[in-house]
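Thread: Newbie trying to understand structure tokens

Hi all, I'm a second-year student working on a class project, and my supervisor (Dr. K.) asked me to get a predicted structure for one chain before our next meeting. I've only ever worked with sequences, so writing a 3D structure as a token string is new to me. If someone could post the tokens and maybe explain what I'm looking at, I'd be very grateful. Here's the chain:
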Amino acid sequence: MKRAKAIMIQGTMSGVGKSLLCAALCRIFRQDGYAAAPFKSQNMALNSYVTADGLEMGRAQAVQAQAAGIAPDVRMNPILLKPSSDTGSQVIVHGEVRGQMTAREYFRRKKELVPEILRAYDSLAAEYDIIVIEGAGSPAEINLKAEDIVNMGLAELVDAPILLAGDIDRGGVFAQLYGTVALLEEQERARIKGLLINKFRGDVSLLEPGLTVLEEKTGIPVWGVVPFLSAQIDDEDSLAPCLEQREGKKPLDIAVIRLPRISNFTDFAPLEAHPLLGVRYVSRLRELGEPDLMILPGTKSTMADLRWMRQNGLERAIGKLAAKGTPVLGVCGGYQMLGQRLSDPEGIEDGGEMRGMGLLPVETVFCRQKRRTTVTARTEAAAFAEAALTGYEIHNGRTTGGEKPFCRLSDGSAEGCAGENVWGTYLHGLFDSGELTEKLAAWLCERKGIAWESAAALSYEAYREEQYDLLAGGVRHALDMEAIYDCMGLVRKK
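---
Reply by user tm_fold:
Sure, no problem. This is what the structure looks like when written as tokens:
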């Protein structure tokens, strides 16, 4: 029976770049003639993805699957935790909601999920040549090690060699790597075959004395120093997503409200890639200014985040700008906020009712059944009519009202709501096809009196493929790929 080889990327902490390193390896293995698939046993993220069969998984593994040239599959992320508060999360297993759990309750019960994890892993391992496994956080979180199912605990279950990555951009990378190794048990240290330093800027030769000492003290070779790469790949979010401002000023200004529980902010990556559209993330009233377009993104907690905007003055400011004609787009939770009323009779969020922003003639009722589906559609909103869309829905609310839809789905049903300068839709990924992005850019240019020449719509899929190749090229050049293949017992095919 076929059994895939495995390689696992662990990190000294969250945010060291594990997700992108795994995506790069998936791409490299594909380029080298191997069928590779990503795997992360447990992912905590608000950036989720809906598969073709309507199941929910972490977006990071969907990105890694795309880098590997395969369709995202819920087996690649059997457990997804979507934080709903500082101490609780919605628990999703094999793409289906299992319920809401506090951190303590989940910690107590997560070992029960090991058979589910292994079932998913073994199924993938029977179909692919290589499984690229991503760890979570740090393997040296000694207070959590006894119940670990995502780092060393998983590596032992599937017998995976490990590459340990540290982030030099944050500083202290030698202490990160040495301290992590020192806190591990002997059999755990033996699994680490190589160390990686990620996000380096500068002359690698200046690191060499430190690398030598690091190898001497840990007894583990350094297999690469990966530069700070410019590839634009979807970020993975966490409890505190890092949404950095992009450098360089562009003629059109789009302000995305950085809600406390923002989800699926990667919806706007195609806008960031456009040469005319400047995208910035706003969390304070003084940062809003007078943008050309305001976007209310998705959120895990619509009512709580609307209350946050109400308290800090952003809701009132957005309403005033909209009244003066500034366009507003709401996506998923942002769409729900734009309506007249939000009702939560089953206590899915905060319970009770609250007034919406009143910018669209719709009302939302939350219910336990989550809608998860992939769709194709065409816009009907006058500003960008007939733009072809592909996307997915993932929400608990049911929104009704409004005479004019934002778009019409392929089955003929209306979706979303369109006003004169305010629009709402449930569709995530709505800009990926490129058509809506181009029509939006043209419409905003016309409003602002900026010259714009029509061009073929840039497919975000094509742009993304270029970025995967750029990422893989940078990582391949930096890593000792022969050593990586050797630790798996493989050789390059090409």
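A couple of things are worth pointing out once you decode it. Confidence is low (pLDDT under 50) at residues 237-247. The CA atoms of residues 7 and 194 lie 11 Å apart. Feel free to ask follow-ups in this thread.
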